[in-house]
Amino acid sequence: MRQLLLLGIAILLATPAFANETDSSDLASPGPILGGHLFQPLGGMPGPFIRTVSQVTVGGGTTLNLELPIITIGDRIVVAPKGSLAIVSMQAFHEQRIKDWLSVYGGFRLVGRLGTNVTSLLSQGVNTATSFNLGWKVRVIETRKFLGTLSLDLTNGTVATVDVDQWIAGVIDSSAVVSENPLVQTKPVLITGLTARGAYAFNETFGLSTFIAGLYGEAIVRGGNAAIYFDGGIALNADLRPTTDVPVAIAGGIVYRQTPSVDDATSGSSVTTGSLRIGYSGTQHFAFGFQINAQYGDVGGEKQAFFVGGALDMRFYY
Amino acid sequence: MKRHVLLILAMVMSIVGASAQVHLGVTGYAQQLSLNGDSPDDQTITSGLGYGAGVSAGYFVTSDIQLTLGVTYDVRNNTVSNVLPLTDSLEAIGDFSLTSFAIPVGVRIYGGSQTWYFSSGITFRLHNDAQVVVLDPDTTMSVSNAFVQLEGSLYLGFGYMFRLGDVRLIPELRYEQGLTNLLNGEPLASLPPAAVMRSSGFSFRFFAEYAFGGGL
């Protein structure tokens, strides 16, 4: 953690030095503008723009109409869980433009998921994931209305799971609490991947952004093999300012992500997130918005859950 | 063997002579690289100060992109609160030291005035020795078998180039993230199956390079 803070300080100290060395024409447009359209960033959607930007996002959510897998020991149903799950997430991110065709970035992310009552806690336990991300982004193509970039990402994370269900089963099997069956299991995970990102400006009001990523990463479950995962997403955003003179922008998008499963070494898991963001578009020096997310994902035992949440997203462009 | 070395030296010198874009020099650094990942519950590993020194070379592909290569002798130090799981014979506080030959291969990308730069690349380390030193009782143990021979890590950093005639003095701050697992299989009974340990942290490096032909 101390290392991450030091890295953050180092990057921020370097920011003015590199900012002073960029071309004056670049400095005229610190924000993500293409073809006269100011793009609104959408949380969870990697942006194609090569800019110097700092970002902080804080969010949370809960489940709707949750059906959880039944806990059985032998043939007996021990718990038929009811309740809900809560999610909290925090993210800090900085991207530094080195040249107008190259930027590097680093970010820290914390996500926690836990049951909100005894039975859902028994069923789903507590999962926390902390990750540190590094990346390099290179411009591949830019025209007046289209921008395409390619990025290489490296994510180093730690996933901690408290699987009460599995722990109880282990205690019953061995008739004792043993070190081979810990209640809290932590696993370091390294994932790397290539992401293609694009943005297209229809006019001053409307813009489209998209990404597709291929990732290769370690399994979260002990003994699992590394695997390939795919992510993708698309977002449409509308800036109302050019047409109505109201400095408000609306962005909507959908993101599909494959991830290593937290409870099965041999399979992956997938999450589909739909997002709607309302933000301020009166300046290109910062972006401030509130985002509503609806997420559909696996919760184990061939059951899936529908999460609804919100997030505050702030970005400052230098 | 001797003929091959001479041939390589002749090739290097011919490239150097023909180009004003080549830098050759020496480098030294202090580093604080920790070991992260799995360690036994009763063991904490605290990063200590390590160091390294060697030779460095650079080649300007364009006026703002420089390819870099180096070879250094590299030492990483960590303090281990309980060496018993590592040594399987002694419960005491120990200093763990991992020495390697490091080969960083990378690129520097310079800003507009060609002074500030961003660097990135991969460092390969060929591990030479892994030792645990315990003061009380005074014992030194080799634990090389617990670690793999070859390690890869990714780095990024930024630095500043001072130009003094044909000499370039370059301080650089670098962050490094290990890509490969340091542990060799399952060396310790007290670790979980498929135990993972990687190295990451900061180094402060200083390069003194000679710019042939008074180039960039």
Radius of gyration of chain A using CA atoms only: 21 Å
Given helix and strand content, the structural type of chain B is: mainly beta
Q: Count the E strands of chain B.
A: 11
The coarse overall form of chain B would be elongated
How are strands sequenced across the largest beta sheet of chain A? 3-6-7-8-9-10-11-12-13-14-15-16
* H and E string of chain A: HHEEEEEEEHEEHEEEHEEEE
Percent of residues in β-strands of chain B: over 45%
* Average pLDDT figure of chain B: 87
Number of helices of chain B: 2
Q: What about the largest sheet of chain B?
A: 8 strands, antiparallel, barrel
Largest interface pair? A-B, 29 and 29 residues
Q: In one word, what is the shape of chain A?
A: elongated
List the SSEs and their pairings:
The complex is a heterodimer of chains A (318) and B (216).
Chain A: H1 2-19, H2 24-27, E1 33-34, E2 37-38, E3 53-64, E4 71-73, E5 76-79, E6 85-99, E7 102-115, H3 118-124, E8 126-142, E9 146-162, H4 164-174, E10 184-201, E11 206-217, E12 227-239, H5 241-244, E13 248-260, E14 268-280, E15 286-300, E16 303-317
Chain B: H1 2-18, E1 22-37, E2 45-47, E3 50-62, E4 65-80, H2 84-87, E5 94-110, E6 116-134, E7 139-142, E8 150-160, E9 162-164, E10 167-178, E11 197-211
